[in-house]
Design a protein that fits this description.
Length: 644
């Protein structure tokens, strides 16, 4: 009865704050008055989940109702589900101790029911808690356990989710290359399963990773993919989240107009679906944009509204963000006293959050200590009882110990021998790879030397010869007595002029002087102009970060690869638009080439064509990474990342 009264009170207060949801009160009353059976347990669990983002307290009350009823009617699966749902709410509230306790209770029941899928899901959530607490090794172990179960069950959809979580942990560990590898594998599973929502999540996570790597071009590219898919799926939560993520990048680039437009759309969606936490977060970010652009009145309105909502629904991170934004705004508008008061509130709240979490950690440690102490006392009692038996087992133990030592020595010898063999094999493989790289470099170097020799011969030999013929021809044409021969002489002169131009163009393409004298950017500009100026393909060239030249070998490889790609676009793509982007980062150079042509199936054998194999070999020679993103009828994007 007390629980029911508490539930009614919370719902009443909630509907006063959120009148838009008041029409659901009748439906909730129907569920509470329904027959006490398994269906009612499931309905209460659904309410617990649905109120997760609306009111955490209401959600927990529904969860407690589900747990109480499931226990009363002896419905183990319902008990486990209630524990699971309430654990998720506690994770959102950062009460990780309660969440862990509930998940462990659910785990006991799932194991008794031999529910492999449920066990894997619990390992997944325990991994998320460990990750949020910074226990990344434990988080990785739990996610790997979940992945093993899903692989044994052949559940590709959930394999994709586990791979996604493992990728995020590697990202937190700073293993960015491993994180990208796992994200790509998760994406493959999700595309294979036609899991469009999972695919959207993967694009968003890969965008977050690229943003962390300061590759904003790729970050925006993947955020836009995620946004496009979420719009197709009509998933408002995903749409609003991706809009906010793209806005954050634009805000970092100080493109405030673009950021504000996307934040506004995100806010409208979150207001429509009643996502109070998301509304508070978006308003706080909009307040920052307004502050940065000097629109102080609008900033004040957005930040004050964000603060009020955050306080009403008890989301501390958003409340802290709003307080800090308001303090900065007051300081900029010379309201020093108000700014000081807000900063005091911000510091007090932050200290309160820190103290709460610290006390929770101390309580966890104290509980663990008391548990360990009790176990130690039980262990000593047991040892006293077993003491008389130890002497009788001593000889048997010594015999087993001797056998164990012999097995250990034998095993160690086998292990050392195997390790020696593996090291020898690794050394041989390393030498073979080094030799292959040297051969590839030698081939490319020989090609470039031959290009230089032929270009010099064309320029100094054939070019000079054509020039001499032209001079002699001009001398003879002036002496021509018959007027009817003049057109013929002019025709021959035009042919000689075209031949000379063609020889110069071929010589320039084989070894462009701009590349040797001025560097990669002028050489690319010249090459694009020469090849595309008179073609139906419109092109755009963007570059940044090239304040100084990079290594000559990297410049040459990137130039040759771009030459090959431009040639492929002209010959095969049927494209009308080509975009080339060159970005120099702190440790890498990124080249992105995209067209709107017919594309190709990147998984089919066209990838083994001579031109593409030549590109791959060149990129391997400078230890770069090559990625194709193409499908028939959808254009082609080729991304190359090479270390400096």
């Amino acid at each position: 009865m007390k629980v029911f009264i508490s539930l009614a009170f919370i719902l009443c207060a909630y509907f006063q704050i959120n009148p838009l949801f008041g029409n659901g009160n009748e439906h909730i009353q129907q569920i509470l008055n329904a027959k006490s059976d398994t269906n009612k347990v499931k309905s209460l669990s659904d309410l617990c989940w649905n109120y997760r983002f609306k009111s955490a307290d209401s959600a927990l009350t529904f969860g407690q109702q589900a747990l109480q009823l499931a226990t009363q009617i002896n419905f183990p699966k319902g008990i486990a589900q209630a524990y699971n749902d309430m654990a998720i709410i506690y994770i959102d509230k950062a009460n990780f101790r309660s969440a862990t306790n509930y998940l462990n209770e659910a785990m006991k029941i799932r194991k008794q029911l031999n529910d492999s899928t449920g066990i894997a899901a619990l390992y997944n959530k325990l991994g998320i808690i460990a990750q949020k607490q910074g226990r990344l090794k434990e988080a990785l172990e739990n996610q790997i356990e979940a992945l093993k179960i899903y692989r044994n069950l052949g559940q590709d959809k959930w394999i994709g989710y586990s791979l996604n979580n493992i990728a995020i942990i590697h990202q937190n560990l700073g293993n960015l290359d491993n994180a990208l590898k796992y994200h790509q594998e998760a994406l493959e599973y999700r595309i294979k399963q036609k899991d469009r929502e999972g695919e959207t999540t993967s694009y968003g996570n890969m965008a977050n990773l690229y943003a962390k790597m300061h590759d904003t071009i790729q970050a925006v590219n993947y955020y836009e993919k995620a946004l496009s898919l979420s719009r197709e799926l009509k998933k408002d939560e995903l749409i609003s989240a991706n809009l906010s993520n793209i806005s954050n990048i634009y805000m970092g680039q100080k493109k405030y107009d673009k950021a504000l437009a996307l934040f506004t759309e995100s806010l409208q969606i979150r207001e429509r679906i009643g996502d109070s936490k998301g509304i508070a977060s978006t308003l706080a970010r909009m307040g920052t944009v307004y502050t940065e652009t000097g629109r102080f009145k609008e900033a004040s309105e957005a930040l004050n509204r964000s603060l009020k909502i955050a306080q009403n629904v008890a989301v501390l991170e958003e409340e802290l963000s709003a307080l800090l934004g308001l303090a900065k705004l007051k300081a900029l508008t010379h309201q020093t006293d108000s700014s000081f008061v807000l900063m005091r509130q911000y510091i007090a709240l932050k200290d309160s959050v820190y103290d709460t979490r610290l006390k929770q950690q101390i309580l966890d440690v104290q509980t663990q200590y008391e548990t360990d102490k009790l176990e130690q006392d039980l262990y000593l009692i047991k040892k006293d009882k077993e003491f008389t038996e130890v002497k009788l087992q001593q000889r048997k133990t010594e015999l087993w110990l001797l056998i164990f030592v012999m097995i250990s020595i034998t095993g160690a010898a086998i292990f050392l021998f195997y390790r020696h063999q593996q090291r020898q094999k690794a050394a041989t493989d390393a030498e073979r790879i080094q030799e292959q790289e040297a051969r590839i470099n030698a081939v490319f170097q020989a090609q470039e030397e031959e290009r230089r020799r032929i270009a010099k011969e064309l320029h100094d030999g054939v070019g000079q010869t054509i020039s001499a013929i032209k001079m002699n021809y001009q001398s003879l044409s002036g002496k021509a007595a018959e007027k009817e021969l003049v057109p013929e002489f002019e025709k021959i002169g035009k042919m000689l002029e075209n031949a000379g131009t063609e020889v110069r163009n071929i010589s320039h393409q084989m070894i462009p002087k701009e590349l040797e004298q001025f560097g990669l950017i002028p050489a690319v500009e010249g090459m694009l102009s020469l090849n595309l100026e008179n073609s139906p393909v419109q092109y755009q060239f963007e570059h940044s970060g090239f304040s100084e030249r990079i290594g000559s070998q990297i410049e040459l490889v990137l130039f040759r690869v771009l030459q090959e790609l431009v040639s492929n676009v002209i010959k095969h793509s049927k494209a009308s638009q080509l975009t080339v982007q060159l970005v120099k980062l702190k440790t890498h150079v990124v080249m992105n080439v995209s067209d709107n042509g017919i594309g190709f199936d990147a998984d089919r054998k066209e990838k083994n064509g001579i031109g593409l194999l030549n590109i791959a070999s060149r990129i391997d020679a400078i230890k770069g990474n090559l990625h194709y993103d193409s499908a028939s009828g959808k254009g082609t994007t080729i991304t190359i990342r090479t270390p400096l």
